[in-house]
Amino acid sequence: MKSFAALLVLASGLANAEPVPLFDGKSLDGWKIQGADYWKVVDGVVTGQSDEKKKNSILWTKKDFTDFALDLEFRFSGHIDSGVFLRHMNEQIQIGISGSLKRDMTASPYIGSKRGYPVEAEGVKELLKEGEWNSMRIVAKGNHYAVTLNGKEVMNYDSDTARDKGPIGLQVHPGVEMKVEFRGLTLEELAE
Hints:
Elements: H1 2-14, E1 20-21, E2 31-35, E3 39-42, E4 45-49, E5 57-61, E6 68-75, E7 81-86, E8 91-96, E9 109-111, H2 124-127, E10 134-141, E11 144-149, E12 152-158, E13 168-172, E14 179-189
Antiparallel strand pairs: 1-14, 2-5, 3-4, 4-14, 5-13, 6-10, 6-14, 7-8, 7-13, 8-9, 10-11, 11-12
């Protein structure tokens, strides 16, 4: 019986698609900008940088995704308010300072309809390297989200407002003059 269960786990892992790059290293092909035109490619890095107008800007994938594991690296310095939207604007994994809480909430889920963070990622202060590249893995499987930061799982959350399918977005938050960089964006679609 035990070997049958192991075989099922192995088979489900084989059903997952191979990770594919979401960014070609040269252009924003496959992406679209909503809001201010703050996104560009600089030296092979997706860069979101606002100006003195401090407007909202989201870089969305043109493709929708269901269940996935998203791997990326991000870098920032100073006060930023960014994040990764999961399938729609209501659900986000925060990067940087929360505008409402006035403290770093990196790797925590922000749920817009709840106007806050239902759980806080653990151990981020010790893991986050400001001004350096940080790795993040976000797994969205159904309504469950898990985040790994620099190799350590820091957050698990079951959302009651998750959508089944939608794009992935990168944010430059309004009201903040900031710069955030992303690279190594790859996505593995997970079997249902």
